[in-house]
Amino acid sequence: MVRWFRQFAKDERGVVLIETLLAIPVLTLLALGILEFGNMMWQRQQLQSGVKDAARYWARCRPLTATGTAYMPCDLGTARLIAFTGHPDGGVARVPGWDDASELTITPATPPTVPNDTSLVTVTGTVVYDPSPFFATFYRAPITMSYWYQTRYLGW
User: Fold this and answer.
1) Structure pTM?
2) Please, what is the Cα angle at 18 between 16 and 21, to 5 degrees?
3) Of all residues in the chain, what percent are helix, strand and coil, respectively (each to 5)?
4) HEC profile for 65-122?
5) Cα dihedral sign, 15-16-21-22
6) How far apart are CA 96 and CA 99, in angstroms?
7) Is 27:76 a contact under the CB 8 Å cutoff?
8) pLDDT tens for the chain, residues 1 to 156
9) CB contact at 8 A, 121 and 58
């Protein structure tokens, strides 16, 4: 038995195969982790862009006139569509699963009638990250991403 073990220890024919079998799973997990992290950062960037776009739209809405009519029809629905899809008429969602009105808060809910230097628009967006099936098998707790943006109310 000792002789067989010494002969086996000196044999180097299968070393490359063993090293490859040890390295492939580690490198695969590392590559998939990098891809998942990149996808998460991309979805966060899209969330940030949507929140900023909605805030810029709402900050430029005209106030109501003395008769109660608006110069330009601005509504929260259009601001939400701009945030969620990037277009006032709707379209493909920027972030998968980010489409509920409760996930986007716009303050104030109506443009000010007499804006001043302290009139601010604050938009907050929240979405639960939609992971890949690979990541979902290892990490089951939901990951919530949030972003808020504040700008001065400008009007037209």
Assistant:
1) 0.79
2) 105
3) 45, 15, 40
4) CCCCCECCCCCHHHHHHHHHHCCCCCCCCCCCCCCCHHHEEEECCCCCCCCCCCCEEE
5) positive
6) 8
7) no
8) 788 777 777 777 778 888 889 999 999 999 999 999 999 999 999 999 999 999 999 998 876 565 656 555 688 889 999 999 999 888 899 998 898 889 999 998 887 777 788 889 999 999 999 888 888 788 778 889 999 999 998 876
9) yes
